[in-house]
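Pipeline run #58 for the internal structure catalog. This entry was flagged by the ingest filter as a single-chain record with no existing model, so it goes straight to prediction. Upstream metadata was stripped on purpose; only the residue string is passed forward. Reviewer on rotation: M.T. Logging verbosity set to normal.
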Amino acid sequence: MKKFLLSIALVAFSVANVAAQETSAEGLRWKGIMNNGFWSNWEISVAGGINATAWNELGADQDATGDLGWQIEGGLTKWFNPILGARVQLIGGQLNASDDNGLKNNWIMPHADAVINLSNWIGGYREDRVYYAKLFAGAGVNFVNVNDEAGSGFAGVAGLINTFRVCKQLDINLELKGILSAGRDMPRGLDVIAAKYGQIYAATLGVAYRFNKRNWDKAYNQEEIDGYLASIAALEAGLAEAHRNEGKLAERLAAQKAATDQALKDNEALRAELAKRKTSVVASTALFFNLNSARLLDRAKSSMQILAETIAAAPKDQVFTLVGHADDETGSPEYNQKLSEKRAKAVYDYLVEQGVNKDQLTWKGVGSSQNIFPINSTNRVVIVK
């Protein structure tokens, strides 16, 4: 009994020590797989099958063998990564001695094993694998009732577990094992007095249920982590730039709204002027441009829509002159002459597009020769007369 208690204590200490090491070694990796937490990757198993005994006789050259017996077993296994695990198992059953009397011996054996998944070790971890070959080896205490007297002692155990995966929770196990024990702790018939050592060979078939977390997480190396962090930083920078662009767009929209509001006010003023004119309409208006540009501004387009209505209401024989100007502080006289002509032509083309009769329009450019406004920058203009 003291040996049994000592064995159980050793098993408990081993499992606790492994768990403690695992907790303190959170960063451990195995072939790109993270070691798991203590409560992950557990399985419980039950099985039943047959056994046979054999032992070497002291001082003799031949071995003695026993008859077939039966056994049942239950185990609890913890996997630390896809190849390494630890198991505690309790075996119980009956061993048959080899003599004419057919003595039957009740037998139990608690033991703890280290388990290696050969399939994952050699072939790499795969969740869709159907068959796994697992080696195990360990030690325990052998309790055998020999001729109504209890015998017990330490024993070693090793074997192969053939696992067939049914689903992610359930496995079928065909386990083949051998147990080596001192001969005095083995069942023996009346014709066997003593033996150096004995063996128990067993084959069992059973099921295993895997619970809590059943799969394994990928481990990322430092290069991959740095790449992910760089990608995140790039995304954050892009998001910040998008926010900045959003602010600029809001400013542009506000400026455009202000220009539109001003154009509407100008249109209302022109409409009021048109209401006063019943028969003959004479229009004179100014359409402004940006520096070195002949592109029509939105505000100018809004004013020209009203101008088109003004011309349409005028007598058919009335001709409107579009005079382009440029300021004299920028550009040479030759450049300013061409720029003023482009501005006048741009206004002419737009009014024709709006349906104005081109026979009522004429255009010319005077360059920077005529500064009609006291502020020089306002001379970038087309005057409609």
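catalog note: Helices lie at 2-24, 118-123, 222-276, 298-313, 333-353.
catalog note: Residues 1-29, 58-62, 278-283 have pLDDT under 50 and may be disordered.
status: ready for reviewer M.T.
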